[in-house]
Amino acid sequence: MSLYHDAVESILINQHRAPHRLVQILRDLQARLQWLPREVLSQVADGLHLPLAHVEGVAGFYRFFHTSPVGQYRVLFSDNATDRMLGSEALMHTLCHRLKVQPGVMRHDGRVSVAATSCTGMCDQGPALLINHQHLVTQLTPARLEHMAALIETQVPCDQWPAEWSRVDDQIRLADIKLGAQPAPGQGIAAAIARGPQGMLDDIKRSKLRGRGGAGFATGTKWQLCRNFPGQTHYVVCNADEGEPGTFKDRVLLTSFADTVFEGMAIAALVVGARQGLMYLRGEYRYLLEPMQAVLQRRRAQHLLGKSIQGLGGFDFDIDIHVGAGAYVCGEESALIESLEGKRGTPRIRPPFPVEAGYLGQPTTVNNGESFAAATHIAVHGGDWWVKIGTPQSTGTKIHSVSGDCERPGLYEYPFGTRIGRILEDCGATNTQAVQVGGPSGVCLSPLEFGRRIGFEDVPTAGAFMVFDRTRDMFEVARNFAQFFAHESCGFCTPCRVGTELVVRRMDKLKKGYGSSEDVQVLYELDKLMHGATHCGLGAAACNPLRDTIAKFRPAYEKHLQSLHFAPGFDMDAELSQARLATGRDDSGAHLENMA
């Protein structure tokens, strides 16, 4: 009998041997075994009646899964631009030196490995790191790292480390509707039941509520489409996979306002006729799982989940939490559904859209956590109340995750239409050179644009608001974002898989001092070629920070240029041809046959 047989069997039984639970099964196994040996993946494949290649493909897709040993302690430093600004790179070097380990390589005794990972959602209290993908350490200092190294060397379990190391503050700096006083649990559901499903849908449409995840699709339209499509069952999914660097608003909503989010999901279920809800919780927020499950259990006891909610016969709805395994692309709703179904998080070809054929092929509405919270307030106060807040095209309020060069990082909630300059004033930002709104896939604004306003008709945002003062090198900021996109590409389509890597290589060449003005032109070419050729929005947005910083902060690039000095063997024509071929276009810009 295999050494791992009992562990695999107990977890398969606990997960009901459901193939669509594969990601959760692998998470549970890795938590127990520290990594995923091929023998274990083979047993999982046999137990779920899946091809081994499928199971190995899923295990190899997510960055929090390891098919080779990574050590008893897997230390991952958050590598967002704001963490770097706070000294994360030097701190990581310090810990590696103290532990006598090379970055990305497990120490010879199997005790520890140290590496970098994408933003962990702790931008307001960084530098931060993760231990074994679930234990957080915030506000890192050299002294704290020295103590941590000693604990690792003496093999002290992470749950016995000083509790203050894992303290995560909400840091709500300015509250309005969604961060202020909340309705009592059940108040929104009672109001929705009183209106009836159609009446509640009409109120959501009247409110002009738009999705808070960035795309801004009309929530009422999405719910109506899901409600109208026939299916054996309907699903409500909460996208809590806020992987956009610089965003941490959902972290606070799920920490302190989970009732309001879950209530919004139940209201959506009443409208669309769903019996099952799923919350996709980003892997970096694994520490929130047990507290959120406790909230769900309390709501069941209060008859706010389960059978006949609030005594209404036929209103049966419950929520399950699915924990991600580290994949930014799963923030795209169809990739998220693929992950929920136990697959690689590759975005689907659309149509059909999730409202037609989503989770398990059934009509599914996918909304952001902030959108569900807004729905609860609309149920209580009405669509006419909500529509009077904000602007005609961007109603209500928006929560901003403010980090970077400011005195008071944290959460700020404003009505849509608020000036960028007002947010900078409130957070104590001075001598500001740039603001990255909406994360790397958003827009970078210069001081000439600080009079612009947050809103879908001007500066749309998913919530991130990163501040950079005049001491920062905007080339380095853009280079960090380029590395992020290259690392997070799902690899499905050639334009994104190769194009993002070509951008990083070009930026690295400039960093090393071998660049010329032609290199900047090649970056422009890559931007144009990728923007319309990629399978999903990740590749299309990957060059947004590059385009903005070149246009608005050109001196940051020019200082890296050696106008007539090329790296040995550099061939401009060959480089452009490679870029065009890699991104699926010929010299005229026409699409080439997709060979991905």
Explain what you see.
- There is one protein chain.
- The chain has 596 residues and is α/β, with parallel strands linked by helices.
- The protein folds into five domains: 5-61, no CATH class; 73-169, 3-Layer(aba) Sandwich (Glutaredoxin), CATH 3.40.30; 173-387, Rossmann fold (3-Layer(aba) Sandwich), CATH 3.40.50; 397-469, Ubiquitin-like (UB roll) (Roll); 474-582, NADH-ubiquinone oxidoreductase 51kDa subunit, iron-sulphur binding domain (de novo design (two linked rop proteins)), CATH 1.20.1440.
- Helix content is 43%, strand content 12%.
- The longest helix is centred in the C-terminal third of the chain and has 18 residues, at 494-511.
- The chain is globular.
In short:
The chain is an alpha/beta fold.
List the helices and strands and how they pair.
Elements: H1 5-14, H2 22-33, H3 38-48, H4 52-61, E1 73-78, H5 81-85, H6 88-99, E2 112-117, E3 129-131, E4 135-137, H7 142-153, E5 172-174, H8 187-195, H9 197-207, H10 219-228, E6 235-240, H11 249-256, H12 258-272, E7 276-281, H13 289-301, E8 318-323, H14 333-340, H15 354-357, E9 364-368, H16 369-381, H17 383-387, E10 397-404, E11 410-415, H18 420-427, E12 432-437, E13 443-445, E14 464-469, H19 474-488, H20 494-511, H21 517-531, H22 537-541, H23 544-552, H24 554-558, H25 572-582
Question: Any descriptors?
Answer:
single chain; 596 residues; alpha/beta; 5 domains
- Name of the CATH superfamily of the largest domain: NADH-ubiquinone oxidoreductase 51kDa subunit
Helical content (DSSP H or I, runs of 4+) = 40-55%
Structural class estimated from helices and strands: alpha/beta
Tally of DSSP β-strands: 14
Mean pLDDT: 92
- The parts where pLDDT drops under 50 for at least 5 residues are 563-568, 579-596
Side by side, the strands of the main sheet go: 5-11-10-14-12-13
Please describe the biggest sheet, giving its number of strands, its sense, and whether it closes into a barrel: 6 strands, mixed
Counting DSSP H or I runs of 4 or more residues, the number of helices is: 25
**How large, in whole angstroms, is the Cα Rg?**
24 Å
Number of separate domains: 5
Distance between the termini: 41 Å
Strand-residue proportion? 5-15%
CATH class of the largest domain: Alpha Beta
The CATH architecture of the largest domain comes to 3-Layer(aba) Sandwich
